[in-house]
């Protein structure tokens, strides 16, 4: 008989305690929040508790003590500086009067440039412009020099508000000769006396944002608030080819799209929706996606913290702010997921526990219970939840498709409601969104309340509306007014009956939800007549765990597709070591190994089979590169969309060589049987 020791007694006690806890949690519903079963009608009308007013009135809705905007005063602090809704309203009034003092007219013809990362000053300016019927034009430096010059000159903006000295130096490179409309630069951070002198040498005026506020405080004027039919923002789409186009978004479009997008949340949370809501603003406010998210937070009285401005600090920003509402894009969500799965796969025990935890939590979710308080949360998911601050209730994703298994992971592991939205800049980022309690991935929900959707035939791709599949077209108050000073492009986007043509191929499901299945834009024809939508294929291949990025190429002179593939540095080295016996962890070296290429192609073929790609939609050869596609090397737009023309130019010699080898292999005489 074994000796009884305190150590063995502790082990028995621990086992007994764990067993008792498991039994208790299996018989007791954990704390959390609940939702009713899916109801499509929840999407068809706005909830009455959402404030029915234009954005110019938003800061005046909430109590004096309610936190509105906050930020970290330095990288050594948390979110230690906050302004209440009352304080924001006062500052907005001062900024608006300050803009008027600069000579700007309270008119919808007045366009104010904002050249800044997400900051409180940016939102103060935006709300101030709304109170004086002005229009904001956000810009970002990754657009490139030619695009920035084009935007400034096309809008003839007189005032540009910049966050730092580098932005001002960028403008100085072109000066008055190339930017003749500019009269005044406003800076948020301090600038050197040399920079001030350089600005003045261009016959431009320069002043600080603080001075702008003080001038407005000392020179009050009457408000001229915007109307619902007024423009509120011109969002320049970066575009994959050509000059950027300025999408004109109206006040009603922004407001109604934002209001419709949160209807389901208010159905779940009711008046509690904004009680403790905290949101991190880090996606660029120059894009309509973040504009809509910001409008939703302000309309419901949430507290908004601005990230530190450094993407390397983003995780710290999230942890310090502890947001309840987190919005992202698939690119970031996929990276977090891959990092977690890579760690889980290091141990069979970890993998079993992880899969078991997801399975058990899914049982609660299907009963309408969203929670972070199960035994499995304590055992498995607590550290994972801490990556997003530990308090997230709502996760929103948009701008690109995301794989169903990843959506399931975020719903269950983070104990949150996860929504996938579908839209584009031209429909104020809102056409449809998944419903509360959605469990089926790969669909983007029914239309939101302010938007109608119809499908139209695309005969060249064999898609017909009579079969519930075709190009997605939208109509409603959320559809943009057109492209600024570009009637030709506007007519290409909106037909004579007012329908916006998205270029996406959608299918109505039996449940009445929309599923994006293909892409009409950027399609090309192979030599044997098949039409190919490369973006759809690239999305399939990047769902493969070994692939981080992919560029699929084909043209009418070739019968097959080839690809440029950036392997995932988070997964490839470990895979190469365990499966291929390669000791090197250098991505450059791994990309040169033929066996690595074969393994990546095999994994891509598995994804192609999983997503049912046709034979002609699958690449027949690939080239591996360790150089990521990025905004900096001009292969991605600022919204992380592939620049196809630039990719073709950069990799043309490699593409030609792949086709040469494929042609040789196809023409090689077969040996006699």
TrEMBL record:
Please state every residue range assigned to the domain named AMP-dependent synthetase/ligase. 79-484
Q: What Enzyme Commission number(s) appear in the record? A: 6.2.1.3
Report which reactions are catalysed by this protein.
Answer: (5Z,8Z,11Z,14Z)-eicosatetraenoate + ATP + CoA = (5Z,8Z,11Z,14Z)-eicosatetraenoyl-CoA + AMP + diphosphate; hexadecanoate + ATP + CoA = hexadecanoyl-CoA + AMP + diphosphate; a long-chain fatty acid + ATP + CoA = a long-chain fatty acyl-CoA + AMP + diphosphate; 12-hydroxy-(5Z,8Z,10E,14Z)-eicosatetraenoate + ATP + CoA = 12-hydroxy-(5Z,8Z,10E,14Z)-eicosatetraenoyl-CoA + AMP + diphosphate
- Report the Pfam families cross-referenced here: AMP-binding (PF00501)
Reply yes or no: does the keyword Coiled coil apply.
no
Q: Gene3D superfamilies this protein is in?
A: N-terminal domain of ligase-like (3.40.50.12780)
Asked if the Swiss-Prot or TrEMBL record annotates the protein with the keyword Lipid metabolism, the reply is yes
Instruction: Give the InterPro entries listed for this entry.
Output: AMP-binding_CS (IPR020845), AMP-dep_synth/lig_dom (IPR000873), ANL_N_sf (IPR042099), LC-FACS_euk (IPR045311)
Q: Mind telling me which CDD domains this protein's record contains?
A: LC-FACS_euk
User: Single GO molecular-function term?
Assistant: arachidonate-CoA ligase activity
Q: Which domain of life is it from?
A: Eukaryota
- How would you classify this enzyme at the top EC level? ligase
Any one Gene Ontology cellular component term annotated for this protein: membrane
- Keywords annotated in UniProt: ATP-binding, Fatty acid metabolism, Ligase, Lipid metabolism, Nucleotide-binding
Q: Function of this protein? A: Catalyzes the conversion of long-chain fatty acids to their active form acyl-CoAs for both synthesis of cellular lipids, and degradation via beta-oxidation.
| UniProt similarity note | Belongs to the ATP-dependent AMP-binding enzyme family.
Protein's name in the database = Long-chain-fatty-acid--CoA ligase
Q: What is the lineage of its organism?
A: Eukaryota, Metazoa, Spiralia, Lophotrochozoa, Bryozoa
